Amino acid sequence: MIRFIKDFLNGLSSFFFPPICKGCERRIEPEAGVVCAECWRKLQPFPAVELRAKTIPEGLDAIWPVFLFDDLFQKIVHALKYQGNISLGYELGRRMAGHLPSDFQEYQPVIFVPVSLYPVKLRERGYNQAEAIARGLAEIIAAPVETRLLKRVKNTTTQTKLNAEERQVNMQAAFSVNEKCDPVQGTIVVLVDDVFTTGATLGSAAGILRQAGYGKIIAVTAAAPI
Question: Which of 32, 54, 123, 167 has the greatest number of C-beta atoms within 10 Å?
Answer without folding.
Answer: 167
